[in-house]
Amino acid sequence: MKKIVISILLVLGFFINLNAQIKNYPEPEKPLTRILIIFDASTSMMQQWEGGLKIVKAKELLNELLDSLASVQKTQDLEVAFRVYGHQSPDHLMDCFDSKLEVSFGANTIGMIKDRLKTIQATGTTPIAYSLGKAEYDFPECSDCRNIIILITDGLEMCDGVPCEVSVALQKKGVVLKPYIIGIDIDIRVSNLLSCIGNYFDASSEKEFKRAINTIVGQVTNLTSVQVNLLDTHGRPTETNVAMSFHDNFSGDIRYTYMHTLNKSGQPDTIYLDILSIYDLKVHTIPPVYLDSIKLEEGIHNIISVPAPQGYLFVDIDGVAPENSQIKCIVRQTGLPQTMYILDADKKQKLITGLYDLEILTTPRTYVDAVLIEQSKTKKITIPEPGDLIINFKNPAFASLLYEKGDVLTNLYDFTPDKTHYKFRLQPGYYRIIFREQRHSKSTNTGEFKFRIKSGEFRVENL
Fold first, then answer.
1. Which of left, alpha, beta for 199 (phi over 0: left; psi -120 to 50: alpha)?
2. Distance, first Cα to last Cα, the chain
3. How many Å separate Cα 233 from the centre of its chain?
4. How far apart are CA 187 and CA 171, in angstroms?
5. What is the value of pTM for the model shown?
6. What is the dihedral of CA 419, 421, 425, 430, to 10 degrees?
7. Tell me, which fold does domain 223-307 have in CATH?
8. Which option is the CATH number for 5-221: 3.40.50.410, 2.40.50.140, 3.40.50.1970, 3.40.50.970?
9. What's the CATH code, domain 387-462?
């Protein structure tokens, strides 16, 4: 499984309301959540904001966030790490590699982060892109973790890096979900540049900033409930028992898989998804149906409706021979050459309503075109039972088995001299075997054997 990192860019300060949304459904157990805080200690953080220095205010609000995260750790698996940039070199040196992981992930790191935060001084430049790129490797390997980046900054990239390009590249690789950007007291021209990184929140006051934080924290610490309605022809959510996969819209990565279920009340069951992704949903009906660019809302029970009307196809081979169930049927949508599905005969199979062309792999093949599948109905295609034929050549021979339909002969099988015993299951009809023993060298030595196969018949022919 790829490592998923959820990036959140915060322009200044923190506040968190951990009592996010009230849920009416039991939420599944969450995986380990790991939050990496990236703190801006560039010289711009020495500017005034809300009655004090930005760096001072940011430290105060970051401590509030850390206290809240400590409370979360009492009920959830949560680890916190701390990266800082712009704090090791003076601004005039323009040190674009001034970024350091000060506290690594582990147990009981919040106190260590608070202690380190006290000594941080704002002295350097702003290498946002470099820090984001390095942050990817701050997370130890984990097959089932939610990795979150919180970047506290008050402005733009000051080095050669392009944070938007880093964000896009990480999203395309499936490493990072779409980031959040919260800007406080940011000029509109600057905010437009930041918004290309991800979801932008404009916080013109501390109150607005705290409201934005509440929204984001609610999203990154909670899953949201979702109900998928698979609609029949009449628009009712009656379709079920089909696999579903939710893919990240940007990277295409598989985020969740579920088997659609109707609960005891006959309603689509509730599932839980991370609200941070925009999803593309694939319902694995035959053929599959899709719904792209699904954006979930926080604090409500999200309902996703997807038309998926289905009926049944049943290819029935007459007779009771166990070999009948081994006959395959190729299913194609009418008018399309691609093989859509291969099903077993004597098995009822759900298909999306519509027209299909069938190629049943009997000998010879049986074709049935424009088969109509209707809502909740079973379309039965009955195929005559094959007959069994054993051919024994007295002497090695070159030969061909031909199917005869009117004046048209179709080659079904070529015999070779290295074998003299053959067994076939043939559909009812008329056949010929044209042959010449290997020991003969003239065309006039050609022999021909005509015969008819009936359903369920067993016959042996010695040539």
1. beta
2. 61
3. 26
4. 27
5. 0.78
6. 90
7. Immunoglobulin-like (2.60.40)
8. 3.40.50.410
9. 2.60.40.1120
